[in-house]
């Protein structure tokens, strides 16, 4: 009987420990809601999560931090081309207790933080939580919070910390220790090789790492590690004392350090709730001339690249690398020439909109756009990739981009022939966005069977557990945003069926990805308004979700036209429809 009681007591103790150490319900709930990407085993460093705020960024556990605008290396060089300067990772703090165990870790997408939770075999009642983030409100600062919870302990606990990165060495920077004490260390880091004739320098003020933190029984304690940066690129006031400015930023953060994480989360909550996809500033602010100059600049470039072929009476563009990066120095890439034609016509249209047609050679540009060579095989009813193309293996989507995103005018037969032919000659180990474009193309033609073959390949390069995209399924460039962007386009423009036209958002009949019963896209933007779109295999629902001050909107479907009103969803049978602004 005594043995049974002992066994029961041990089981109860194990259950208590598991409750303490296991992933808490709130964490699991947020994982299930897609707000946290969680793991119990962190991947190799190249596939670890990134912490950043658009100014300062680093890979968790990596040796380097990168900050905006600071590059090392000459402007023109083959062997040592200019690149982002690598600062030592002052935030690369690791727990070094011999009995430490990572219980779980995760990237909080909603709050832009990375968290690790540890347990210790010799102190089973102790947990340590390590939170990394780049401040959303104070861009020059990176912050780390380490909380030691010994409230249930019966003795003091000593946490051992270390930073394995050499903080005074960089291949890109000359680093000088300006000042150091038990609280903070200050560095001045200057690039070794300027791009031009300006040497970029940055001051760094970072918390000095204390190797041990002791917490008494019954106590809970948080230690904060802040790193602040300030470069001479930001020195608009003419104050060259970078060290003192940086130290001031550091002190300001510490003056409210116990509130910084909540301030950071609140800022992200505001960002998620705002319309982050509004009209570009150049147009929103009324700077039409600036936008127009950019458009005209593109047209001038393409007009300068064409040659007139007197034999064919066509304009040609020679010596290019098209989207297919295996094809180097080819002539008359069909994709390139279509883009050139679009750019020229866009500039003419922009000039007409703002009354500046006299400022451009509109007649010449229209002639070039109308007569530029667009390679076409009339026998096989498809587009050759370039002059002389004979079926060579291609790296990635190229010709099929004519249908989307360029929406180049062609018959369904030609569109299908392009898709079918180039699918057979494309490198199967190429970049993921290729499969996204095939998914969109096949869905556009109503071939859901072919689309379902391409669809899973479009996200096969998203590596677990943090969905870090690689260029190919086996590696290549890491954080391959082109692949992620392609997958999102396959979802919105493929299964969602969206096509953006000058006067409306048109949707050919939305469809569902394999093994999906319904889909909802929240917050897509159009003319300063936002919308939600929900569909299943029978119906579609559209909702206007933001106040409209410039336009009203009509929903056109099945021969019917209805006004969209704020927060009043309209539901209709699955099929083609359009959202049209009323000026």
UniProtKB/TrEMBL annotation:
UniProt keyword Repeat present: no
Q: What's a single GO MF annotation on this record?
A: hydrolase activity, hydrolyzing O-glycosyl compounds
Give the residue range of the signal peptide: 1-22
Entry similarity comment:
Belongs to the glycosyl hydrolase 65 family.
The entry's keywords: Signal
**Name of the protein this chain belongs to:** Acid trehalase-like protein 1
Q: Where is the Glycoside hydrolase family 65 central catalytic domain?
A: 289-390
| Any one of the GO BP annotations | carbohydrate metabolic process
Lineage, highest ranks first? Eukaryota, Amoebozoa, Evosea, Eumycetozoa, Dictyostelia
